[in-house]
Amino acid sequence: MIAGLEDELAKRFDIHFQHPELLDEAFTQASYVNEHPHQNLKFYERIEFLGDAVLQLTVSEYIYKRYPEMPQGKLTRLRAAMVQKASFAKFALECHFDQYIRLGRGEEKEGARHRSSLLCDIFESFIGALYLDQGKDAVVAFITKVIFPKLDAGWFDHAIDYKTALQEWLQRDGDVIIDYDLKREDGPENDRNFTMTVAADQKIIGEGTGKSKKNAEQAAALQALQSLRGQQETLVTHGKDELD
Amino acid sequence: MIAGLEDELAKRFDIHFQHPELLDEAFTQASYVNEHPHQNLKFYERIEFLGDAVLQLTVSEYIYKRYPEMPQGKLTRLRAAMVQKASFAKFALECHFDQYIRLGRGEEKEGARHRSSLLCDIFESFIGALYLDQGKDAVVAFITKVIFPKLDAGWFDHAIDYKTALQEWLQRDGDVIIDYDLKREDGPENDRNFTMTVAADQKIIGEGTGKSKKNAEQAAALQALQSLRGQQETLVTHGKDELD
């Protein structure tokens, strides 16, 4: 048993493992197993293999249902951003998983505990363990706390572009009419600047400038998103700041 | 509704959709939607996005549990072989899915119905529809008929090597002691041939020759697999021949 891990999961996430040996496996690196040859330990790699696929499906299903009009190409880009190693490493840190990894002495010395690739692996293997212990619904409940709030917090906007992100944000609670209008065009002929506004139900909510109308629209959408999110800050339970 | 599709699924797989509109979506290409603009149709791409992830997980979980000693690297190679486009296209043909795809006239003329990439997509989108309609267990029941028997039939041996495949085959029903022994070594010094035998519980079941002992072992394992599978042919319900 790994000291403190079960308490942490119970306290922060109300997760209680029926088979804590799955947790041991999920948080143990091969280097630790090699240093304790008589303890008959397992290391996390097989369970990580499973966890990776569990995350692919649960994230896919969530965005498939949440964005019923989003075409496949955008869904694919958004999923790729959400399931990338860098994201998982941040989630692992946020969950304090780094504190509970069992490493061999050599790996510990070399700072493996803080390596993004290991943190990502451990996040996946934890998901694999949770899935084996309690099934898909428990995984969905967990990532509803840890991953999905980051969508509203804007972590993955770049994957779908700001105009789409703004549209998804505004239309969460029903139809909203979104208009982009040219407010101003200035500068010399070969170096024009365009300024666009974006309005939701005829109320201007953002403005942006760029070298093309398209770029100006993206800038306007980003400004609108930032201001809308500022207003709703209290709703975003898991902020980005903790991890950056 | 797509004529005949529901009957085929009911007859061959005992599958009955509660929401047949999901089936319509899963079997309809964008080209058909474009030619019928007033029917408010959906095409398969979004649902295929989901089906792809469902297959990743269900196949991963199956091989994870079936091969409890297989290390991650081999699991990953085996999964890659099982979920590749060429495999899915064959499964789609085996299920007669090609007959039910709704295509635009241009695509039909160009032979899209027989294109491996489209067949693969349709197999994935069918899985997505089945998952949405009836959940993961229904998908597992379906691929237990369509995909998993191919493991025993040897379709994916190359992904894990013949020695591993033989070991998995022999140890399905409990422990078997497998020995590889050098039977003969001949040829000139710079062009040696090695002949190895493989025995299961001290009974020789295969023999192979190669330029190294390792290659000879692989050849012996392959011969053993072929002969064992020949004996069990009647057990393999979905043979390879139909599709090749």
Give a description of the structure.
- The structure is a homodimer of 244-residue chains.
- Chain A contains 13 helices and 3 strands; from the N terminus they run ααααααααααααβββα.
- By secondary structure, chain A is mostly helical.
- Chain A has a 3-stranded antiparallel sheet, covered by helices on one side.
- The longest helix of chain A is centred in the N-terminal third of the chain and has 22 residues, at 45-66.
- The first copy, chain A, is elongated and about 75 Å long.
- The relative contact order of chain A is 0.12.
- Chain A binds chain B through residues 45-46, 48-50, 52-54, 56-57, 60-61, 64, 70-72, 75-76, 79, 136, and chain B through 45-46, 48-50, 52-54, 56-57, 60-61, 64, 70-72, 75-76, 79, 136.
First-last Cα distance of chain A? 31 Å
Strand content of chain A: 5-15%
N to C succession of SSEs of chain A: HHHHHHHHHHHHEEEH
Number of strands of chain A: 3
- Quickly give the structural class of chain A: mainly alpha
For the biggest β-sheet of chain A, the strand order reads 1-2-3
Helix count, DSSP H or I runs of 4 or more residues of chain A: 13
Overall average pLDDT of chain A: 89
Q: Work out the count of structural domains of chain A.
A: 2
- Coarse shape of chain A: elongated
Low-confidence stretches of chain A: 233-244
